[in-house]
């Protein structure tokens, strides 16, 4: 600083030395030297820079941390290198404007600031833009926490993340070095704080677009839009100021589980306006409607009875959906999988993505349904059964399963018929099938009835043999005396006996003993052999009723003893005859 002052004083001395003075002490101009004349001419332009004043300087050196700038002082000024947006824009020899912060700091160095100079120069422009809500251009410099730094007229401004766009920007780094329009929304000169927004400009543009769009929209229009958001029920499409909903059911004629299978964010697509509520500003869009419906001319393309090929698209408990072409599916109901097999679940026979053939059973265009059949690709075994083995035929079968009421016998592959317990024997009363049959036993059965609609066959074992009851009628007439082997005891009713190893008969308790006070169940047990007399016979009802009491009636003690001695295995006395208690 002292050097500058000396320079000024020396100039005045030189000026005075070049002039002669008259008697009054005034210099005589004619005697001025050339140098004196130059100093007189430009002396007023020679100014000494002051602190906090913006001056120009030339970059003379670039170090790691500072840039040295020559401002005409005895030593260069220092500008921190961080005040430059990029080292690429720093070149030796360039002239830049800086703010003189200190002419001489504690280290005797000149302290300069480029940022403060830029801020001062730009402030008026930024302030005017703020006051007038003007749009100004800025260049995105770098990304920082919470947003971006933007250069406005050479000064840094803060662009918050929420003010960058109408929606969240996935990658902020892509914006670096891009020049865009901004609006100043906050100023603080003391803190040199400038906050800007791009979102405000976009919202204004969108609002104008929305107004224009509402006036233009017509149902049936085809417009271009951008996929703005995707949900599980559809996608929101930005039509240019107004969002419309593209429901998942209107994305494709085919089956899709989620819109992401077809659409992606920011994708440009064409859509059709399906409906528009101007008051509520709601727009329903369609994508599949841009292509013909696969249900057009469906009856001509897939007539009933046609064998078609498709891919398993979905499997449910009740059947499988087969994609015949894009957007066109038919259902194979679980009942149409097999004529004979019992299918627990369609997944037991097929899997998603599998190619299969099926037969078209019915086409319902109105309800958009196609019924398909898998079993119809082969011959119906029920039809074959009726042709080859009609009712009345005797066939061989295998016992597959038994229940309380009968046994199921397989008479053809996948076809089972029922033999009811009442059709197992002419002469025996069967309580449970396992008394008469065993599983996997091969037997002859007669087909009684075939019901193709209900898929049922009635079978009989006993009818494979002649009915013996016409013979029994002449043999076991009333009064006929026989021996019966006890099969089982029916409490409070009587006993079932087997007569001559060929037919069953029934003995009521009232015809078993004379003494009512005796506990009848204790008198007799299975496998006991007792003498009996036939008291009732019905061939139609296949019933024989016998009586032990009637057998004993009229026989003397000697006759009974003689019978007993000749047949000791015969249980003749039950404690109620011959005085026994």
> How do the strands of the widest beta sheet line up side by side?
3-4-5-7-6
**Outline:** rod-shaped
State the helical fraction: 10-25%
Domain tally: 7
Q: CATH architecture of the largest domain, please?
A: Beta Barrel
Largest sheet properties? 5 strands, mixed, barrel
Radius of gyration: 57 Å
Low-pLDDT stretches are 1-19, 21-26
What's the name of the CATH homologous superfamily of the largest domain? Nucleic acid-binding proteins
Span between termini: 155 Å
Looking at how many chains there are and whether they match, the oligomeric state comes to single chain
User: What percent of residues are in strands?
Assistant: 35-45%
User: Any idea of the CATH class of the largest domain?
Assistant: Mainly Beta
Q: Remind me, CATH topology of the largest domain?
A: OB fold (Dihydrolipoamide Acetyltransferase, E2P)
Structural class: alpha+beta
Number-wise, the strands total 32
Question: How confident overall, as mean pLDDT?
Answer: 83
Number of helices: 10
